[in-house]
Amino acid sequence: MGLHNLQGQSKKYIRKLFEYAYLFKNKLSSFQEYMETPVSAQLPQDLGLNEKAAHEMIFSLVKLIEQSEKVEWDTQKMLNLLPQDIDEQLGQTIIEAIQSISPLCDKITNREICQADSLIDIDWRIDVQIQTHNQSKVNMPVLFLQLETLNSQTNEKNNVTFQLNQNEVNNFYNNLQKIKEQLASLAQ
């Protein structure tokens, strides 16, 4: 399960690992305001693992969160989910870390966290800069893109407007192509 790799880590670090696993499980892009900072990109080095082993450990943490949710966060039942040979103090730290994020998991289960906004309109225009302090940008086309979204729970519309130069448009297009290909492969 990889939990033995947590031996010797601080309670705070273990909690951050479970918060990261929570984000991973729910495909959230950022921490809630009351959660601590994300786990560093140095996770494999911090734990003395290769990258694959670190990913496997995060998957095992996600599974442990899911199993803990199924036993309704009961401490004794959660202890039974841990490997038999795990250090008692480490086991207690793991249980505390999981229980600290249990209210967040319950919110996800109860659908109290907003679903993503829906894209309802795209508006765009291309402008050519005719005057700027940077002469290299004169006569360069610029795309202004506006995305209109709708929050289905609050019925609130929001607009996001941004500007892209030609290189950024190409990069944006290439990323959209990758997304399209991945969606198509998953839909089969």
Any descriptors?
188 residues, elongated, alpha+beta, 6 helices, 3-stranded antiparallel beta sheet
Can you characterise this structure?
The chain has 188 residues and is of the alpha+beta class. The protein has helices at residues 11-26, 43-47, 51-70, 75-81, 88-109, 166-187; strands spanning 118-128, 141-151, 156-164. Helix 1 (11-26) packs across helix 3 (51-70), helix 1 (11-26) runs parallel beside helix 5 and helix 3 (51-70) packs across helix 5.
Instruction: Describe the largest sheet.
Output: 3 strands, antiparallel
**Oligomeric organization of the protein chains:** single chain
Rg, rounded, reads 23 Å
Assign the structural class, choosing from mainly alpha, mainly beta, alpha/beta, alpha+beta, or little secondary structure: alpha+beta
Q: Into which percent range does the helicity of residues fall? A: 40-55%
Report strand order across the widest sheet. 1-2-3
Number of beta strands: 3
Whole-number average pLDDT?
Answer: 78
C-alpha end-to-end distance: 32 Å
What overall form do the CA principal axes indicate? Answer: elongated
Order of helices and strands: HHHHHEEEH
Q: What's the total helix number?
A: 6
Strand content: 15-25%
Are there runs of 5+ residues with pLDDT below 50, and where?
A: 29-37
Provide a brief overview of the structure.
The protein is an alpha+beta fold and 188 residues long. It has 6 helices and 3 strands.
